[in-house]
Amino acid sequence: MKRTFALNTEPHVAEIPGVADLEFIPEAMGDEFLDAYQEMRQTQRERTGVDVDKVRDGADVDGLRKVTGALRIFLSRLMLPASAELITRVDVVRAGTVLATFQTWEAAAEYAEEAGDGARPVWGLRLPDRILVQLLDWTVELYAGGGKRPPTSSGGSSARSSTGGKRSTGASRSKG
User: Fold this and answer.
1) What residues does 21 pair with on adjacent strands?
2) CA 110 centroid distance within chain
3) Residue 50: what pLDDT?
């Protein structure tokens, strides 16, 4: 007996219309995904004291900003290089002008403080937090929950088995 297993070879694409198409690696080995996920959760708990699951319970703004950064870093670890760079890019702006670009919030914040006069860090790819959370959920589904099965995998196009028993269109006794 022989069974063939296929791997996804095309990147997964998270389309954000009018903003960007973020490309994720086709396959993540279990330990790669789990290590990145565990690191994100541990980082956000240790460095911020904020639990992502309890964010809605009124956490402080700086803590939430750190959670957002940890989430972006986690997502970037599953992305192709250009998308990873885009989601972690932090611009330092003053009066609408980009002064410098960094790959970490901390480096950008330090530069903004030195630049003074209203300079502040902002994410280069501005996304609502709900989109970041949806991306997190999507990646968990893709890499930890099995995700989309490759089209050539066994059973990839097989129909669902019918349930046992006899089908009937007769009226229910309880309504009779």
Assistant:
1) 15
2) 27
3) 56
d(CA 48, CA 98): 28
How far, in Å, CA of 35 to CA of 17, rounded?
Answer: 30
Domain that holds residue 102: 90-124
* pLDDT of 46 over the 70 cut: yes
| CA gap 10, 58 in Å, rounded | 40
In this structure, the answer to whether residues 120 and 131 fall within a common structural domain is no
Predicted confidence band of residue 157 (pLDDT cuts 50, 70, 90): very low
Burial 86-112 (b: 16+ CB within 10 A, else e): bbbbbbbbeeeeeeeebeebeebbebb
* CA dist., res. 125 & res. 82, Å (int): 12
